[in-house]
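User: Some background: our group keeps a shared notebook of sequences we're curious about, and every so often someone picks one and asks for a predicted structure to add to the entry. Today it's my turn. The entry only has the sequence so far, pasted here. Could you supply the structure so I can complete it?
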Amino acid sequence: MFEDGDLDNLAEQGLLGAVICSENGSITDSTSDDLEVFGNILGYVGQLANMIGESFGLDEVQQVHLKSSQTVGVCVPQEGSTLGVLCKHSANVDKILEEFVEY
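Assistant: Of course. Here's the predicted structure to add to the notebook entry:
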């Protein structure tokens, strides 16, 4: 899923990396081996997002944003998997997500 040419352009926009995890939390694709911890956390965040949505009677959670002073992580549950995108705090995260997710 991750094309090297596209990743170079996205890195210039602030992308640090992206991962895809299966429903059981295992990493199925990644832009870098350095994202293993993020990928492991991603599986739990996706499950938590779905539990919160279900318990409050909300529609399916579309995104979960995790922010720190330096980075922004986004968890996007998808059919049978979860996409995780890690960006610099100053990045236009929505623009970067458009390259990975169809709305």
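Suggested note for the entry: The first strand starts at residue 15 and ends at 22. The CA atoms of residues 51 and 61 lie 9 Å apart.
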